[in-house]
Design a protein that fits this description.
With 275 residues, the protein is α/β, with parallel strands linked by helices. The chain has helices spanning 22-28, 47-60, 88-105, 123-142, 164-178, 189-194, 199-205, 231-240, 269-272; strands at 6-9, 33-36, 63-68, 109-111, 147-150, 183-188, 210-215, 247-249. It has a single domain (6-272), classed as Alpha-Beta Barrel (TIM Barrel). Helix content is 37%, strand content 13%. Strands 1-2-3-4-5-6-7-8 form an 8-stranded parallel β-barrel, surrounded by 4 helices. Helix 1 runs parallel beside helix 2 (47-60), helix 3 runs parallel beside helix 4 (123-142) and helix 4 (123-142) crosses helix 5 (164-178).
Length: 275
């Protein structure tokens, strides 16, 4: 068996309990790492709200391995704001807050959702804005030794990055135009699969560009084992290709014990490593 380190996405899992209680619930379930989508209602939340979030992570004794930048109104269908010229200031202000949280908690990865195509605005204008804003985010992340992730996403008809190659093209553009060296591909195996990508080929082709991995089974986006996606094979392939990062559990719970597919002794990176 190949040892893996898991991190629990507390924005999609454990939603039956208050958000700030979820890190402790993750710890009690035997894991030692969490990740979040942007956890606040506003891109620039009040200092007291930021402090409460940081304290919830610290008090639970878990690592915050990843944090999304603000992505707009996700329940309403927005999937990022960084490619909207009218929201560049909002995005950049959010980047500074996110980097501050990450610096306090030792977080080394940010997910920057690209944003939907907007009516009445040429795609080229959005892409130029996205390149500039991603370069800004990359520079801010570089100050603390972190990376910025670019993710193909499914389920949003106007979202332009569907396959691994789409995200890598954005990464390459920002590197060419702005010199940013710390952008990486977020390979969510569920999104790649349902978007029709060749998952195995993508993992081989872009092995050196993958900065983070997330999983859910397909179809359905449930726990591993609820669908037909060969997650064990792909996770083994990632390790063989040199990936040593966390595996983000970003799926929808379908049963009361949503972690029962993973033996408790395999949930903590420290336990798996024999620490």
């Amino acid at each position: 068996m190949i040892a893996r380190a898991y991190t629990v996405n507390c924005s999609i899992l454990l939603t039956e309990i208050p958000l700030l209680d979820r890190p402790q619930a993750v710890r009690e379930a035997g894991f030692d790492a969490v990740e979040f989508w942007w956890p606040f209602a506003q891109p620039v939340p009040a200092d007291r709200d930021v402090d409460s979030f940081v304290r919830a992570i610290s008090d639970a004794g878990v690592a915050l391995t990843g944090l999304n930048f603000a992505a707009g109104d996700m329940p309403a269908g927005e999937r990022g704001i960084l490619s909207d010229p009218a929201r560049s200031t909002e995005f950049r202000d959010n980047v500074e807050v996110a980097v501050g949280i990450a610096q306090a908690l030792g977080t080394k990865a940010f997910n920057a959702l690209y944003g939907n195509r907007l009516d009445g605005l040429e795609p080229e204008a959005q892409d130029a804005t996205a390149s500039e804003n991603l370069a800004f985010a990359a520079a801010a992340a570089q100050r603390i030794g972190a990376v910025v992730l670019v993710e193909p996403v499914s389920g949003a008809a106007a979202y332009p990055l569907l396959r691994a190659a789409d995200a890598v093209a954005v990464i390459d553009r920002v590197r060419t135009e702005h010199g940013a060296q710390n952008l990486r591909l977020l390979a969510d195996l569920y999104h790649l699969q349902v978007n029709g990508d060749d998952v195995g080929l993508a993992l081989d082709t872009y092995a050196d560009k993958i900065g983070h991995v997330q999983i859910a089974d397909a179809p359905g986006r449930g726990e591993p084992g609820t669908g037909t996606l060969d997650l064990p094979q792909y996770l083994d392939q990632l390790v063989k290709n040199g990936y040593r990062g966390y595996i983000g559990l970003e799926y929808k719970a379908t049963r009361p014990d949503t972690f029962d597919w993973l033996p408790r002794e395999q949930r903590s990176a420290r336990t798996v490593a024999g620490i």
